[in-house]
Amino acid sequence: MKTSRVAAIATAVALAFTLGACSTPAATTTSTKASVDPASLKASLTWWDTSDATNEAPAFKSLIADFNKVYPNVTIDYQTVPFSDAQNKFKTAAAAKSGAPDILRADVGWVAEFASLGYLYALDGTDLTADKTDYLATPLASTTYNGKSYGVPQVTDSLGLFYNKKMFAAAGITAAPKTWDELKSAAATIKEKTGKDGVALNPAGYFMLPFIYGEGGDMVDAKAKTITVGNAAAVKGATTIQTLLASPGFTKPAATDAYSSIMTAFKAGNVAMVVQGPWELANMKKATDFGGLDNLGIAPVPAGSVKAGAPVGGHDYVIYSGMDANKAQAAIAFVKFMSSVDSQVKLADSLGLLPTRTAAYTKVTNPVIAAFQPVMASAVPRPWIPEGGKLFSPLDDAATSIYVQGGDPKAALTKVANTYKTEVVKDYALA
User: Fold this and answer.
1) What are φ and ψ of residue 39, in 5° steps?
2) Interatomic CA distance for residues 372 and 379, integer angstroms
3) What domain range includes position 105?
4) Phi–psi pair at 349, nearest 5 degrees
5) pTM over 0.85
6) How high is the pLDDT of residue 137?
7) Contact residues for 265 (Cβ-Cβ < 8 A; gap 6+)
8) How many other C-beta atoms can be found within 10 angstroms of the C-beta atom of residue 111?
9) Whether residue 305 sits in one domain with residue 338
10) Are 104 and 318 in contact (CB under 8 A)?
11) Cβ-based neighbours of 8, under 8 Å, separated by 6 or more
12) Which of 411, 420, 427 is nearest to 393 (CA)?
């Protein structure tokens, strides 16, 4: 890819994230030396990596080897921890002051919570906040709490519409659907022309958000401190889901392990479209029967009656607060190396992970990064509140009811709203 084209992409992506920006005050806490002789740092650090152990871990291990060429006396105990276990496992260890990792790859929704509990090392005044202006605004916003910095954006993402180009061609479809109505029509056409299913939808709360956002809804309004997940806009979005699932060409979601079932069907060419994120690109690249990335089309999620919108996801590097200054200095050096422009470029080119640094977009050669640019342009920032990581479990339950069991959308989302009020954001008002 030509540098000029990628530079334009970087500019567009940066502009797309500006809407989610938040101001970050000057550093007021923890400080370290401005520069350190790499050979003088001696420490043993544990890193809990929550990325895919099969498809992504080898690339991170390669970066660790590169880090040790520069910092030969800093040992990294690399451990893969299942994403589904990491949040509670880290909180339990941190609360007990025993067994917590020195560095964690944290979901963007966890950082504010961990910081509010005192479990994260404040980064203001360290090398990790020296080049904050190079980071895209929305990923950077996920790392702050009460005006202080507690993380470094590792990777960003959102959901897009993945489609099988060959199946589109066989059905005579020349462009990706831009609305849910167009998706419904395309699914029916694929079913009629090919005998295969057109769309498989994932019955999970995160994957339900494009339908809610599409009608102008959200989970909560953090500024107004109101719970909006049960309002008319959200219910309308959830109702759209059931309308689609009852239409020709849509598969019935599995009651258990739906995510894996959907991706297996998509890679096998048994379904033409899925809503998915860039973390699956390395997996798709290896899917030779599917046709690899050459056969993969990527487009923004279809729009509802108000807009097209998908949630901003991603991960941040965070450092555990329970360590001495020397160990913290080594941890900061490691995170700085792993989050550098060159490291982000390597991950983007090898895995298709979306960089969080503007400068990285001028160097990537992976064409998939360009394909995700319009996807990220329609991404909707999530509420960066301490309770943010707790918003999805109730929403997952609602998704199971709505997608799998055919439950009433209004009743399911009203239950979510009431759970938020009684268990998650107790000081918020019901909208």
Assistant:
1) -70, -20
2) 11
3) 3-150+313-380
4) -70, -35
5) no
6) 87
7) 197, 200, 251, 271
8) 28
9) no
10) yes
11) none
12) 420
